[in-house]
Each structure stands twice: as C-alpha cells, then as structure tokens.
Design a protein that fits this description.
The complex is a heterodimer of chains A (376) and B (231). Chain A is an alpha+beta fold and 376 residues long. Chain A contains 9 helices and 20 strands. Chain B has a single domain, classed as MetI-like (MetI-like fold, Orthogonal Bundle). Chain B contains 10 helices and no strands. Classes of the chains: A alpha+beta (376), B mainly alpha (231).
C-alpha cells in the first residue's frame, strides 16, 4: 500500500493531497501542468519537504511530520526516472547503470540483476557508449535501468515520455509495460497524456490545482461525467476490461469478450484468456434506435442511455451501458446535439451503439496485471 | 646554457613557492567556492568582497597586512610560532602564503563558476540512487567541476610564479630564502651592468611559463579523455 498525505505551501502554490494506492501495478498521477504532479513526486522522493503529512510505502514510513520522520532521499530506496533522464555525462552507460547498485551484495530480486535488467531493456549494445551519443529514447531506457538496478521498493516516473517525440514514445511504452507485467515493483507514473495513462495505469489519481479530484480505476474515472473536464474532452473515451475469447484466423480478427458482449478487433496475436484493456473513444461511437442492417460496422451493441452530458455546444456526450443488468459496462458516444433531439434520447432509452472497429487503436490494447482493489 | 647557482636557487624557490601555495590553497579555495556558490548565509556579500580584496588592493599593501598579522611579533604570527613552531617571517613559507593570498581570488572564481555550472539535478538523481552526500560530491560534483578546479590551480600557480609586491613587502628579498625569479630580476636590474643577467632570468621565466601552460594543456586533455571513459 502506498499511503500519501502531503500538505505544503510554496508561495502562492498550495499542495494538499491525500490518497492510498495499492503497491502493485501502475498508479498514474494525472493532471494538467501546474496541478502539482512533479512536486508531489519530488515529495515522495524526498527532494522537497512537505510542511505536514505522512508518506509510507508498504508500511515503511518515509515521512511523518507527527513522528518527526523525514528520511533522506538516499535512504528511501525509491527509484526515480526523471523527465530529462539525468544520466551522468562523465560515466558510460554501464557506469550509469551500476551507479546505484549495492556493492558486493546480490539484488533482493534476481529479476533485478545487472544482466536481467540489461536484457529486459535491451541495453547490451549501448553499454560502452557515452550518454552523449544516445538518442532520447535510448537515454530514457538507460535511466529506467539505472533506477531499477538501485533495487527500489517503488519506482517513480515523472513524465518519462514527455521529452520524446512520437516515434520514440512508441519505442519506450512497451518497455514500461514489460516493467509492469514482469517485475514486482509498484510504479507511480506521472503524466498529462490520457492515452499513456489508459494504456499503462491500473489506478488513477486525478490531480487538479494541488488537490486530489478523484482516485479509482481507470475504467471508473474515465466513465465519470463530472470528471470530464479533468480527464479531457477531445480524447474522451471509455476503457473496458476484456479478455481474448477467440481468434478468427480466416478474417484476421480477434474477439474480446466482456460482460454483455464481444468486441471484434483486428488480430492481436494474443492467446486465449489474455486480459486486454480496450479503450474506445467517444467520437468513434455512433448511435441508432434500431439494430442496423447492411452495415460494414462489426461491433454493434444493445445499450441503454445512462447519462446525457448536455451543455450549450453542438456536441453531446452520451453515456451508455452495454453490460449485463448486474454488471454494467460504460461506453461513451459523442453525437451532435441535433441528433439527440431527433432520436429523442433520454435516460433509460434503449439504443444500439455502433463502434467502428477499424477505429480501434491497437496501441490502446494492453494486457493488464490482475489488480487489487483501490481503497480511499 | 647552464644555470648559475644564483639562478638555480631562484628557480627552485619559485617552483617550491608556486607548488606549495597552489596545493595548500586548493582545499580552502574549493571550500570557499562551495560556500559562495551553494550556500546562503548573512554576510555572504562581505565574504565575497574579502575574498576578492587581493585582486583590487596594491600587492605591497597586502604584503604589509600579512606582516601585520603573521609577523613574528604580530598576534597570529606569535601564536603560530609558540604553538606549532611555525614561522612565516622571512622564509619561503611566508613567500608561499603571500602568493597564495594573491592568487586566491583567481582560484575561487574559476572554481565557483564551474560549481555554478553543475546541473544540481544530476546530484539529486544520484541521491535517489542511494548515494550518500559524500559519494555524490566525489563521484558526480567533483568530476564535473574538475576542469574548473584545474583551471583555478593553473591560474593560481601562474599568479604565484609572477608574485612580486606582496612577497617583497612581507618576506623581503633575501637570496636563497625568499628571492624568487621576479625578485631576483628586480635585484639584478638595480645593479649597474646587471642587464645581461636579468635577461637570462627573463628567458628562464618565459621557459617556466611555457612548461606550466603545456603541462596544464596535457592534463586537461587527459582529464577530458578520462571523463569520457569512466565506468
């Protein structure tokens, strides 16, 4: 369990944050710039000191104003991957990687031995190079390896992809997924990009103006209308937990089952039963009052209108339930306000949701680790 | 050209004074540079001004001030002699002190600039990797400021070799004891017909400076090469 309770004031900025997150998988700190994400992570690492509060990881108290505990950063055993990699320019890649390793002793976890980490992050070819000669993506991989080899109890990642261009981001993301799925180190991941969070995170902590707006699973928080201003409108979408139910080799499709239906997507190459998280953007969902025929769209679900987010704009977000009566599954559809009038949409009305399967972004499918429940 | 015993004594003394003053002021200079670059405390501007004083005062005034503080009968000088048996008056150690004081601002300046240029985020990164403060200094800060430390040392050494005013007013101009190359040159041109011998001193000084510059260049290059391959 990661327990965070931090209050601090720096000039006009005030940070007052309290949440608990499971010490497994990835906990994302999500918010706009200026929301206090980096300050919070620095407080976890011990690089800035809160005025009051308590920070503990798996029972180890790192900071407690009440008990007068404030462990120095070098004694916290937290790995920190910074936005700008911060590799030591006067050491080779190998020297950087070895910097935080315990002298003589074997790592507590054999998955964190030098060779294992080098293999996991594919660093063999870089070992003798200087950080100067690395690309941005390679630098971040080395920085992740360096933090892992210090054998941390928790890995902090402060927007590790923010300084990279799009192609390098795509290069790093699979490595972070590997960390999540293959190592037993909880990760606190700071981001202001919802597509990263949806792909990686298990638990989501929404930060706004120095405060926690909400804590919960990615699926729950992205389906909540009141959080829409924070989770983002343009990329708004629902995240659905599914598992691989079948592969249609003739047409090259994979079927993903969720309570209430099956989602057909282009072949994913995953074995049966693999848990997959699907993200469906509201703008990729259309509505119909009757089950349509003669349509190229494969994914059509019987749904019920749960909520209508009406404001004065021309577009309206409609929240649907496509699950079973006892196990709701949220889906968002973005339609024009005119359509809601013409279809006479209202809460409780049965409709059909049309999901353009080709619009499903393959990158938003990711196996996720079994999650523990989130306590607040 | 073989050197006369007179020239040899002056050269040997210059080298000894230059090396001793540079080596002894290195840790003090580094500490002062750290204080000025990294710490905030009341009276910092005053400390900064005092460190820079030898740069703006006439050297003979600095020499006189040293005499007033470290002379045999002055407070600190008498205490040093009574407690440690160290005397700085009229010997090469006094000359080294005078050189060190005169060169100090130059050394501190070079080190301070390099310290201020160090990306402190790298030090924070080292801390998060579990390194103690001492280890962070030795493995991150010091290697990164090494070019600045080296530049400060070379500047200080060069300034020592050329030191004249503070030395002559603090420890006088005694052949074999305090007569470094510039002081020997001064004595020679005071004598009628000493121009030829003074010219020889000039050649020695130029040669010494060239050797010092060349050495620093080689050192700096090696340092840069090593920095690229640590680990």
């Amino acid at each position: 369990m990661i327990e965070v309770d931090v209050q601090m004031r720096r000039g006009a900025f005030e940070l007052s944050v309290q949440f608990n997150a499971p010490s497994a998988g990835i906990t994302a700190l999500f918010g706009r710039s200026g929301a206090g994400k980096t300050t919070l992570v620095n407080a976890l690492a011990g690089l800035v000191h809160p005025d009051s509060g308590r920070i503990a990881v798996d029972g180890a108290v790192l900071f407690s104003a009440a008990e007068g505990i404030n462990r120095r950063p070098e004694r916290r055993r937290l790995g920190y991957v910074f936005q700008e990699s911060r590799l030591f320019p006067h050491y080779s890649v190998r020297g950087n990687l070895r910097y935080g390793m315990r002298r003589g002793g074997e790592p507590r976890d054999p998955a964190l031995s030098f060779d294992a980490v080098v293999e996991l992050l594919r660093l063999e070819a870089l070992l003798r190079r200087s950080p100067r000669d690395l690309s941005g993506g390679e630098r971040q991989r080395v920085a992740i390896g360096r933090a892992l080899l210090a054998d941390p109890r928790l890995l902090l990642m402060d927007e590790p992809l923010a300084s990279l261009d799009l192609s390098h981001r795509a290069e790093i993301l699979p490595f972070i997924e590997q960390l999540r799925d293959r190592l037993h180190i909880p990760i606190v991941y700071v981001s202001h990009a919802m597509e990263e969070v949806a792909r990686l995170a298990d638990t989501l902590v929404l930060l706004s103006e120095g405060k926690v707006a909400a804590v919960g699973t990615v699926e729950d928080l992205t389906s909540r209308l009141d959080l829409r201003p924070l989770t983002g409108r343009f990329d708004a979408g629902a995240v659905i937990r599914t598992s691989v139910a079948g592969n249609d080799l003739v047409f090259g499709l994979t079927e993903l089952s969720f309570p209430g239906g099956r989602l057909r997507v282009p072949h994913l190459g995953l074995s049966l039963g693999t848990p997959v998280r699907a993200r469906i953007r509201a703008r990729d969902v259309a509505l119909a009052l009757e089950r349509p025929h003669g349509l190229s769209i494969l994914n059509i679900f019987a749904a019920r209108v749960v909520e209508i987010a009406a404001d004065q704009g021309p577009m309206v977000d409609v929240r649907l339930d496509i699950g079973k009566p006892d196990r709701p599954v949220a889906l968002w559809a973005r339609v024009t306000r005119r359509s809601t009038h013409e279809l006479r949409l209202e809460i409780g009305k049965p409709v059909y949701a049309l999901v353009k399967s080709v619009a499903l972004d393959r990158h938003s499918f990711s196996p996720y680790a079994p999650r523990t429940s989130v306590e607040e | 050209m073989s050197l006369t015993p007179f020239e040899l004594a002056a050269l040997e003394l210059s080298l000894r004074v230059g090396i001793a003053s540079t080596l002894c002021s290195l840790p003090v200079g580094l500490g002062t540079a750290w204080l000025l670059a990294r710490c905030r405390f009341p009276g910092k501007t005053l400390v900064d001004a005092i460190v820079h004083l030898p740069l703006v005062l006439p050297p003979v005034v600095v020499g006189y001030a040293l005499l007033a503080v470290f002379g045999k009968r002055a407070a600190v000088g008498a205490w040093l002699f009574d407690t440690f048996g160290i005397s700085l008056a009229f010997n090469w150690k006094g000359a080294a002190l005078a050189s060190a004081v005169m060169a100090f601002p130059l050394m501190v300046r070079a080190m301070r600039l390099s310290l201020e240029a160090v990306d402190q985020r790298l030090e924070a990164a080292a801390l998060t990797l579990g390194a103690s403060r001492a280890r962070v200094f030795l493995t991150v800060t010091l290697p990164l400021i090494m070019p600045g430390v080296l530049a400060g040392a070379i500047l200080a050494f060069a300034r020592s070799i050329g030191e004249f005013g503070a030395t002559i007013s603090f420890v006088s101009n005694l052949p074999g004891l305090t007569q470094t190359l510039p002081l020997a040159f001064f004595s020679l041109i005071q004598q009628p017909g000493g121009e030829a011998a003074a010219a020889r001193i000039t050649v020695i000084s130029v040669a010494l400076s060239l050797v010092a510059l060349f050495t620093s260049e080689v050192l700096a290059r090696r340092l840069t090469a090593r920095m690229g391959s640590i680990g």
